[in-house]
Design brief:
Blueprint lengths: L2 H24 L4 H20 L1 H11 L4 H25 L3 H28 L10 H4 L6 H29 L6 H32 L6 H44 L1 H6 L18 H19 L5 H13 L4 H25 L8 H8 L10 H16 L4 H9 L1
Length: 406
């Protein structure tokens, strides 16, 4: 891995950190928010300080050979701690238990980092190693213990988190927890990769203890890409349950907005004298869907004098006789009634000034109206889809309804 291989994912994580910064500031007292901040920041910092060009600059700037290795060890320990703390609060439970477990893990991480610093200060590592620090100094006093402690802690953390995520994911079966379920699955894979990274490092270090350097490539060539992939997947796994519902809501609103278009356009002659709802180019999909549903509701009110209650009842009986569920029959009946009302309104416009008969004409003369039973963004989207099907089909809904009523 070269410099760009480290800096590109670090840049992506930095962008995510910048986007989330306002929410972090607003909820700085939240343990979950703080944990997500630590995960994003530690992941980005791990990529930056693990890059060979950064290692060279940091060592030169501090005047301490290989101090970058110590910094990376500390950063990755913070990443592991943040992941566990977030998982603890994510799962939930009594507040005093959550705080107790959080303090234990933070204290353990602080002790671990302090131990790294002490061991590194007692060691002698004069030759700079940008890529193979672990194997090159595998037999060096104090550094050897630091490496073993780091890898052991990494393995333990990976096993704990992966096991907890796997068990929790198996408990989540309902659709409302789908995003959390997939986030946990990603975390299982991420920490499984992290476990592979530590085991490969251990194999290479163990080979050095055995007196051979033939397995060094496991540490220098195979393990680093796994570390980067695991860190990236860890970030994604924790963000999926947070970002996923919002993306799902936006996608659902956008689909509803598009689905309402046929009915919205068909009712355009009944928009009335008022100005249409104005939508900014930057408006969210939810706002667009709400504005379109409001327009449709207003236009249906203007169409109401042409709606035929007997037609609606007959269409609903017809749909039920075809085996439709009650909610489907209701949507069908409303769509068929609107379709017939638009046809009646068009016919009335063509013969304006001439006397007419029938329910639509009576409603127009007396001002009697019937209300549409479908409302809400999702309901109107379903209604629009059914209306579009009726308009495209060869079925003469009016004839079918009248035959059902006879």
């Amino acid at each position: 891995m070269t410099g760009p291989d480290y800096y590109i994912p670090a840049g992506v994580l930095a962008i995510a950190l910048a986007v989330k910064a306002p929410s972090f500031w607003r909820s700085w007292r939240s343990p979950m928010s703080n944990s997500i901040f630590v995960i994003l920041a530690a992941s980005a910092a791990g990529f930056v300080f693990g890059a060979p060009p950064t290692i060279e600059r940091v060592n030169k700037f501090t005047g301490v050979p290989n101090v970058s290795a110590l910094i990376v060890y500390c950063i990755l320990s913070c990443l592991s701690c943040g992941s566990i703390v977030l998982l603890i609060h994510w799962r939930g439970g009594p507040e005093e238990i959550l705080q107790k477990h959080t303090r234990i893990w933070i204290a353990a991480t602080a002790v671990l980092i302090a131990t790294f610093c002490v061991l590194f200060s007692l060691s002698s590592v004069p030759i700079e190693q940008q890529r193979d620090f672990d194997t090159f100094y595998a037999n060096t006093p104090y550094v050897r213990e630091m490496i073993v402690l780091y890898l052991t802690a990494h393995i333990a953390t990976s096993l704990v988190v992966a096991t907890k995520c796997w068990r929790w994911a198996r408990e989540l079966r309902d659709l409302q927890a789908a995003w959390t379920h997939w986030g946990l699955r990603i975390l299982v894979a991420a920490f499984g990769i992290g476990l592979s990274f530590a085991l490969l490092k251990f194999l290479a270090v163990g080979a050095r203890w055995a007196g051979t350097d033939r397995w060094d490539s496991l540490s220098t060539d195979v393990a680093p890409p796994l570390a980067g992939l695991g860190a990236g997947m860890t970030t994604i796994g924790f963000l999926v349950p947070v970002v996923g519902p919002r993306l799902g809501s936006m996608w659902g609103s956008w689909r509803a907005y598009r689905a309402m278009e046929p009915l919205w356009r068909a009712l355009e002659p009944f928009a009335g004298p008022g100005k249409p709802t104005w939508i900014r180019l930057t408006s969210s999909p939810e706002m667009r869907a709400m504005a379109r549903s409001t327009d449709i509701s207003d236009r249906l009110l203007n169409l109401a004098p042409h709606l035929d209650g007997s037609h609606r009842e007959a269409a609903e009986r017809y749909a039920s006789s075809q085996g439709c569920e009650p909610d489907v029959a209701l949507i069908f009946a409303e769509a068929a009634t609107i379709h017939a009302a638009l046809a009646a309104a068009e016919a009335a416009a063509e013969v304006a000034g001439r006397p007419s008969s029938g329910p639509a004409a009576i409603a127009a003369e007396t001002g009697a109206t019937i209300d549409t039973r479908v409302s809400g963004t999702n309901g109107l989207a379903r209604l629009s889809i059914q209306f579009s099907k009726i308009r495209r089909s060869d079925l003469r809904v009016g004839d079918a309804a009248r035959s059902e009523s006879n």
